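re: the backbone from monday

yeah here it is again, tokenized this time
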């Protein structure tokens, strides 16, 4: 099962948007860019895993780096606090957790 980048991005944004509603006009371009980067990273991990070229630990490290990048970018938007960003990202990642974990075969999210 290959991950669909567009579907992952849409699901992440659909999960995050309600929690960033008051800031969505400012946050949207950043969230879209970071969601796409995150989805591309997950697709890369899936591909590497199928080829046997990435360990579970390395995959988790890639995911954590991407999560931190996403978090850092959203925190640069004036007015958005760490709790709102954390809740939005939890919702975004939760929206794709089952799909990603099933496709990769490891619990990454």
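seq for it, each position gets an aa:
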């Amino acid at each position: 099962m290959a991950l669909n980048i567009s579907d992952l991005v849409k699901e992440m944004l659909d999960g995050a948007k309600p929690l960033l509603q008051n800031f969505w006009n400012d946050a949207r371009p950043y969230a879209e860019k970071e969601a796409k980067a995150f989805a591309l990273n997950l697709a890369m991990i899936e591909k590497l895993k199928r080829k046997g070229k990435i360990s579970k630990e390395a995959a988790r490290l890639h995911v954590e780096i991407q999560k931190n990048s996403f978090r850092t970018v959203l925190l640069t938007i004036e007015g958005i606090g760490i709790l709102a960003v954390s809740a939005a990202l939890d919702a975004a990642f939760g929206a794709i957790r089952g799909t990603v974990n099933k496709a990769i075969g490891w619990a990454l999210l």
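The chain has one domain: 5-104. The two ends are 17 Å apart (CA to CA).
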